[in-house]
Amino acid sequence: MFSDASARVAAASSEALAAVRNVQLCAPAYVIAAAEDAVEAARTSDSDACNKAQARFLESARHDLDYNPKRWNLLARRKEKKFQKMQAQKQTLAVLRSGQQSAN
């Protein structure tokens, strides 16, 4: 039982370190620092500090990724979807017309 628990802890630790390395490849310094703080806090037994560090990391990652959509982003996505839908309809009609012409 102890060996199973220690194996799970080792796997979780290696996954956390791999995640930090992935963040280090593409994130700015403040996101990297928040990720490292979250991993260090997770290693301690203080759950309150761990929760705060995770919240700081998530907030910095959201800010970096601009996760919170702005109104104009939503409108632009709606227009893009509408345009793509119209393009798909035009292509479908063109295929149907070409099929009818070849049948005649």
Can you offer a commentary on this structure?
The chain is mainly α. The protein folds into two domains: 1-68, no CATH class; 73-104. The chain contains four helices and no strands. It starts with a helix and ends with a helix. The model has no long low-confidence stretch (mean pLDDT 81).
Defining key terms:
single chain
* Rg result: 25 Å
The low-confidence parts are none
N-to-C span = 75 Å
Number of strands: 0
Instruction: List the domain count as a whole number.
Output: 2
User: Quick check: average pLDDT?
Assistant: 81
Q: Which structural class fits the helix and strand makeup?
A: mainly alpha
Instruction: Give the overall silhouette.
Output: elongated
Proportion of residues in β-strands: under 5%
Order of helices and strands: HHHH
The percent range for helix content is: over 70%
Largest sheet data = none
Give the structure's gist in a few sentences.
With 104 residues, the protein is mainly alpha-helical. It has helices at 2-26, 29-43, 47-65, 71-103.
Topology (SSEs and partners):
Layout: H1 2-26, H2 29-43, H3 47-65, H4 71-103
Helix pairs in contact: 1-2, 2-3
